[in-house]
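Message: A physicist's question: would you kindly supply an amino acid chain plus fold tokens?
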Amino acid sequence: MIWGLVFAFLEGRHTSEVLAMVLSASCISASGVVKGVGQYTIEQWGVTEYSMPAVGRGAASMSLTTLPAMAICAPRTTLPSGPSTPLRPRRSR
């Protein structure tokens, strides 16, 4: 769901291929990091499986500090233009 929301905003821009690659790498690496941190937390800190959601929420709230920066930068990317723009079908939003 997040992929679709973000990629719909980025699609059709001059740098959409690069941005899609970065978005894909971000999703893949984030999955691995979360699994690694969860395993480390359980093994080293002795956190039980039942209290992991609370620990995960705390970690997620720290990562939300980058959200305002991304919200500011995203609209500043170049809009679709050029000769290929009329050839692209318009998506309904």
Remarks:
- The two ends are 14 Å apart (CA to CA).
